[in-house]
Specification:
Structural class of chain A: mainly alpha
Oligomer: heterodimer
Strand content of chain B: under 5%
Number of strands of chain A: 0
Number of strands of chain B: 0
CATH class of chain B: Mainly Alpha
CATH architecture of one domain in chain A: Orthogonal Bundle
Structural class of chain B: mainly alpha
Number of domains of chain B: 1
Order of helices and strands of chain B: HHHHHHHHH
Helix content of chain B: over 70%
Radius of gyration of chain A: 21 Å
CATH superfamily of one domain in chain A: MetI-like
CATH topology of chain B: MetI-like fold
Largest interface: A-B, 42 and 40 residues
Strand content of chain A: under 5%
CATH class of one domain in chain A: Mainly Alpha
Shape of chain A: flat
Number of helices of chain A: 11
Chain lengths: ~230, ~240
């Protein structure tokens, strides 16, 4: 019933797209996290000139489809080629690879900054007061008290965001990048066997996601040794 | 600037009308997909909450697969898988070419299946949030299982479900842009067509982003209004 020979044939082909999928996900999650942290911290000061543009950036990137964002950066900015060449950024916006990474990073930075903002605000004020009573400076409080607690608090929500990003890398195939989903689509139109290709490609994504979730759960447990889990 | 205004105008030679119409398709696609997803989600939540192994196992598998696999892959499965099946049937009846599935219906089905996986989690959580005493009181009144659900539990469950449903709706609206890959002329596809034909991708994708943003903002406030209404007269934190 199940055609194992066919699976043995398509799985290596699909796996050849795995490095690209992992690169897109890894780079954009990393860049996005750094940006998200900056944006979340910048909003703590409540400077209106800082908070307002950040809120708008977040609203725009959360309120529009990722696909539109990718197209806007890849095709839309391509329209300004002479200007981009003049400022020396054309090499970046010429490549679908970098455009996809820019779009994915900005997108996840918008969602991530909201998660981190909430987590930072969730740190009890008494802890911050206690830290300053101990004579810690502002940066020390941030580094030693607020961030460790906030980041641990953010792990469950942030792992959801990471899964969404792994799934989001599939949109890169629409701008010609042959990652796992792009290869899957090619295989379907060659072999006319949509179900088998879906099962094989889906299994690759589920494995990635399962690995990430397990790793982050382990990280959370490791950071919370005193908390007994039900 | 005047060029841009002309391109996006609703009148003759302008693309405004086509874009607005396409935004209507996006909206209809999203609403129907979301409603179908509510049906799938409710059934799957029922399965998850069941004490029997098989329904619970099937519902869990459904949620894991369609929340873990890229939506684009699900869309390809439904469109190509369905079309291939249809082509085979066509061959049997003597038709030679490739028979494509109707794209709008496929889009609604895809969004229904994907959003149903997310909605199931929302309904399950909301069901568990309803006070146990409500179930007991309903039983004490002699309501049948179905009456208990319809008259007592579901109205209260919706109160807890609305914020989560609002999130899923936003997800659905943005996901609907992916249906453009199977050729349905919704907002995303119409912008691509316009961008290609006028050679002004920036203008068209900004216009598309603006329309998506507007739909998301307006419908978001509808959800917030519904939430306020659902909680009226209730004391809650």
């Amino acid at each position: 019933m199940i055609d194992f020979a066919f699976f043995a044939e398509i799985i290596p082909t699909l796996l050849s797209g795995l490095p690209l999928t992992l690169q897109l996900a890894g780079l954009s999650i990393g860049i996005g996290f750094a940006l998200a942290l900056l944006l979340a911290l910048a909003q703590q000061g409540n400077h209106r000139m800082l908070v307002w543009p950040i809120r708008s950036f977040v609203a725009v990137f959360r309120g529009t489809p990722l696909l539109v964002q990718i197209f806007l950066i890849y095709y839309g900015l391509g329209q300004f080629r002479p200007t981009l060449q003049a400022v020396g950024l054309w090499w970046l916006f010429r490549e679908p690879y970098w455009c996809a990474i820019i779009a994915l990073s900005l997108n996840t930075a918008a969602y991530g900054s909201e998660i981190l903002r909430g987590a930072i605000q969730g740190v009890p004020g008494g802890l911050v007061e206690a830290a300053s009573a101990l004579g810690l400076k502002r940066l020390q409080i941030l580094r030693l008290v607020v961030l460790p607690l906030a980041l641990r608090q953010a792990i469950p929500s942030y792992s959801n965001e990471i899964i969404l990003m792994v799934k989001g890398t599939s949109l890169a195939s629409i701008v010609t990048l042959m990652e796992v989903t792009g290869i899957a689509q090619g295989l379907i139109s060659q072999t006319y066997r949509a179900v088998e290709v879906f099962v094989a490609a889906g299994a690759i994504y589920l494995t990635i996601n399962f690995t990430i979730i397990s790793a982050l759960n382990a990280l959370e447990t490791w950071l919370t040794p005193y908390r007994v889990r039900a | 600037m005047t060029d841009t205004l002309h391109i996006l105008s609703v009148g003759k030679g302008g693309w405004g009308g086509a874009l607005l119409l396409a935004a209507g398709v996006t909206f209809a696609l999203s609403v129907l997909g979301f409603l179908l997803g509510a049906l799938f989600g409710a059934v799957a939540a029922g399965g998850r909450l069941s004490t029997r192994a098989l329904p619970s196992w099937v519902a869990k598998g459904y949620g894991t697969v369609f929340r873990g696999v890229p939506d684009l892959l699900t869309i390809y499965l439904l469109y190509y898988g369905g079309s291939i099946a249809l082509t085979e049937i066509g061959k049997f009846f003597g038709s030679a070419g490739f028979v494509g599935l109707p794209t709008f219906a496929t889009g609604v089905l895809a969004i229904g299946i994907i959003s149903g996986a997310y909605q199931a989690e929302v309904y399950r959580g909301a069901y568990l949030a309803v006070d146990l005493g409500q179930f007991e009181a309903g039983k004490a009144l002699g309501l049948s299982r179905f009456q208990l659900l319809r008259l007592v539990i579901v109205p209260q469950l919706m109160r807890h479900a609305l914020p989560g449903l609002g999130n899923v709706w936003q997800l659905v609206l943005k996901d609907s842009a992916l249906i453009s890959v199977i050729g349905l002329v919704e907002l995303m596809r119409q912008s691509q067509i316009g961008a290609g034909s006028m050679r002004e991708p920036f203008v068209f994708y900004i216009a598309a982003a603006t329309l998506y943003f507007l739909i998301a903002t307006v419908t978001g406030s509808v959800f917030r209004y519904g939430e306020a209404r659902a909680w009226r007269g209730m004391v809650h934190a």
